[in-house]
Amino acid sequence: MPELPEVASLVEFLDERTAGRAVVAADVASIAALKTFSPPVDALVGRRVAGVRRHGKWIDVELAPGPDGTDDAGLHLLVHLSLGGWVRWSATAPTGAVRPSLGGRSRGPALALRVRLDDGSGFDLTEAGTRKRLAVHVVRAADDVPAVASLGVDPLGPGFTPEVLARVLAARNQQVKGALRDQSAIAGIGNAYSDEILHAARTSPFRMTRTYADDPAGVEALHGAVRSVLAEAVAASSGKPAAELKDAKRRGMRVHGRTGQACPGWDGTPCGDVVHEVAFADRSLQYCPTCQTGGRVLADRRMSRLLR
Prior knowledge:
Helix content is 26%, strand content 19%. The protein has helices spanning 4-18, 146-149, 162-171, 176-181, 191-200, 216-237, 245-252, 289-292; strands at residues 23-28, 49-55, 58-63, 75-80, 85-90, 110-117, 122-127, 135-139, 276-279, 284-287. The strands form three sheets. A four-stranded antiparallel beta sheet has the order 1-6-7-5, covered by helices on one side. Strands 2-3-4-8 form a four-stranded antiparallel beta sheet, with helices on one face. A two-stranded antiparallel sheet has the order 9-10. The radius of gyration is 21 Å and the shape is elongated. The chain starts with a helix and ends in a 16-residue tail after the last helix. It catalyses: Hydrolysis of DNA containing ring-opened 7-methylguanine residues, releasing 2,6-diamino-4-hydroxy-5-(N-methyl)formamidopyrimidine.
């Protein structure tokens, strides 16, 4: 799933190529991906792109008011890529009719929406896999989408301070990995970067948030890890074409997705251990026992009760 760094790079990529351009076609191929009906998708046609922004993991393509003067309000094309969604850019976008997607199994990414611009370029929103969760909204204000309106603090914004993080951790007693992934608390962190952040903070993914109440140094360390891991990932992906972002993300991971490989150490010095995994029903997490859990191996939930 694309997380904050990849979405930030996609936003930068799209903003550079679409700002000021007029939409000449917006064709829906997957009606299941479209979550709104008013305004209709064809209301985008004729409007110029005012800019592209990010809200957590959401892409917001902002469209200026209509050219005929009858509509003095702009529109927003809001996209959540979820598990299998992606943005595919074309310098010369196809002009043929878009064939509706009927769902079901597909050998490759299925087209959900195609947007064509007045210079002949454009982008496709596609989705791979059988679990269709890509979400496309056309709204008059970003906050008209409840999932956007309820987003928490941006971890790279000025509002994310150690004090704010301490309040997030104190709000509900839960495992710290879950707190980092709660979009209503901190917007933009998912499964992969929460693993990376906790490794950088030398913290067990199953540490309970209540234990931070009397540990200001721990809060500071976690805050610093959030900032540094995400900022490093954003810098590494900035300027890359959309097609290269997934590979760049995988290359930058220290523990996530690297089960059985040597741990590079939290400070860049190999610790001598290997990356371990805990698997759940539909996902898994990776961590290093030496760096994060005092050498203890966490039990796999598929096999036994969790060790904390």
